[in-house]
Design goal:
- By secondary structure, the protein is an alpha+beta fold.
- It folds into two domains: about 90 residues, D-Amino Acid Oxidase, subunit A, domain 2 (D-Amino Acid Oxidase, Chain A, domain 2), CATH 3.30.9.10; about 55 residues, no CATH class.
- The chain is about 20% helix and about 30% strand.
- Strands 2-3-4-1-5 form a five-stranded antiparallel β-sheet. Strands 6-7 form a two-stranded antiparallel sheet.
- Strand 3 and strand 4 form a beta hairpin.
- The longest helix has 14 residues.
- It is elongated and about 55 Å long.
- It starts with a strand and ends in a 16-residue tail after the last helix.
């Protein structure tokens, strides 16, 4: 089975702890940057993809520099912080930027993949609809639009049509 999935590296970094300044996640969509503050006071930051497909689990400094430059443009105080650690993780991303939640033509095989950036934020709802899909052997109405077939019919979800190519405007 061929899936419309690409693997990309997504990096993040964590600063030294500071007194509380954020109680939610702040994102900068135009620059592909996000930041939140951990319970320990560390600023957790991330953003753009590397720009090429990779199975490497190590990051690179130019991407981190780009991400942090976006963050500093939004919150100048970030430039004063020391970075404690960075990491990179591979993500399987769909071509339209939205997940695939579907049953397949193979009996007993279901898909829940291609989440791109937002999977960890949508886990409760996707888990509930995916459990329904498996238990009932039919797609739940809330995840019907996330079918694998949308790539064959042209009914993609991302209205910009950017998918994993977020730098294209």
């Amino acid at each position: 089975m061929t899936l419309p999935i690409e693997t990309h590296l997504l990096q993040a970094c964590v600063s030294e702890p500071i007194k509380p300044v954020l109680d939610n996640v702040v994102t900068f969509g135009a620059g592909h940057f996000y930041v939140s503050q951990s319970d320990k006071g560390e600023m957790v930051m991330g953003g753009d993809l590397d720009g090429y497909n990779s199975y490497a689990q190590r990051g690179n400094l130019p991407t981190l520099q780009h991400v942090l430059t976006e963050g500093i443009a939004m919150m100048p105080f970030l430039s004063k912080l020391k970075m404690l650690r960075t990491w990179g993780g591979i993500m399987d991303m769909s071509m339209d930027g939205s997940p695939i939640i579907d049953k397949t033509h193979i009996e007993g095989l279901y898909l829940n993949c291609g989440w791109c950036y937002g999977g960890f934020k949508a886990t409760p709802a996707s888990g509930w609809t995916f459990a329904h899909t498996i238990a009932q052997d039919r797609v739940h109405e809330l995840n019907a639009g996330y079918s694998l077939n949308r790539f064959n019919t042209g009914h993609l979800i991302d209205e910009k049509g950017l998918g994993t190519k977020t730098w294209i405007s």
